[in-house]
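>> Question from a student workshop board

For tomorrow's exercise we were told to take the sequence and the ligand below, predict the bound structure, and bring the output to class. My setup keeps failing. Could a helper post the expected result so I can at least see what it should look like? The ligand is 2'-monophosphoadenosine-5'-diphosphate.
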Amino acid sequence: MNYQFALIGYPIKHSLSPWIHEQFLKKSGLKGSYSIMEINPDDSFDEKITEIKKSQINGFNVTVPYKKRIIPFLDELDEQAREIGAVNTVVYRNGKWIGYNTDGSGYVRAFENKYPEVLSNPKNNILLIGAGGAARGIYHALTTTGCHHVDIANRTKSSAVEIARLKKEPTKTAFLTMGEVRQNFDYYDVVIQTTSVGMKPNQDKCIVHVNRVKPNSIISDIVYQPIMTTFLKQTERLGARIHFGHTMLLYQAQYAFEIWTNQYVHIDEMDDELQDILEGR
Ligand code: ATR
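>> Workshop helper replied:
Here is what the output should look like for this input. Compare the format with yours to find the bug.
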């Protein structure tokens, strides 16, 4: 078997996914390759996908801006992808194209690997900042994991309310304005920053400036360029433990690789290696 995987999206020339999956192939001893198939928004998406589906490909990842657009081209969706309404991983299995979403579960895997038994602790209050596509996947994974208390803060309340429609028992969710985040920040044991605020070249930006954190709390930022965001720097200085965004990238890929090959690969040293790559950019 010579696996063929790919990534579709735009723009993706600088994607780290080929590096990650090539490491996974090496680690698992499987033969294969992972290529970039950029689809320009001016190209015909239908034609490109039809072409890809006719090729010898075993599976592909889907990124911005095509995570929803790919859905009508698939035969089946797994439950997570269906509920989230977005697909980031497609596998060709038994003659069918099946869509999955590994972003949210990848986030939870990454977090639990560093801080086990925190998300599942019913005493812990979790705050999700942002209500875009990434927040939606993460909220879904948190409520599926059984987190008891996950509040959502967003500039636009309606998007937060829309995400909370994914809520499952026993999760409780309240909505906060960004001003309320500042006032109540030290109520939260875990804060997950899911917006793009603070990403290069605007690394000096910070989603919210706070002056205190809950002792022992964990602050997580899904931005990974830079790895040490202003938000993480400021909250770490106030005594928080921090969690880096590049780990989500690794673990969503780990789960995708499992879907494609049935092989579980350990991340181990890849975490530090990816940090080095990102810091060298
Ligand atoms: P993604 O799909 O990558 O998560 P997105 O759908 O563009 O990205 O979502 C961006 C999120 O970041 C949204 O929650 C957005 O807030 P709004 O819903 O109010 O637009 C949030 N966001 C982006 N820029 C922001 C800023 N400068 N301040 C506060 N929130 C911001």
